[in-house]
Specification:
about 70 residues, 2 helices, elongated
């Protein structure tokens, strides 16, 4: 099996991936594009898991303190 890792490494002041798009992006074009790309990639990954394995496990980590790599 090959794990997938999807990271949304944006400041929550720019985009909040776990909220509805209008609230998450404040309708800022760059934030909207990132939000759509992030969720599109998740959807594509889930579809690929179902096609290849008929099942999968999605774990959503967020709100972790510290910076990436710590």
């Amino acid at each position: 099996y090959k794990p997938f890792v999807i990271l949304g490494v944006w400041s929550r002041g720019k985009v909040e991936f776990n909220r509805p798009i209008i609230q998450a992006t404040l309708q800022q074009p760059e934030s909207v594009a990132s939000y759509r790309g992030y969720h599109s990639f998740i959807n594509e990954t889930v579809e690929q898991l179902y096609r290849n394995f008929s099942t999968g496990l999605l774990i959503d980590f967020h709100g972790l303190a510290g910076s990436v790599g710590e």
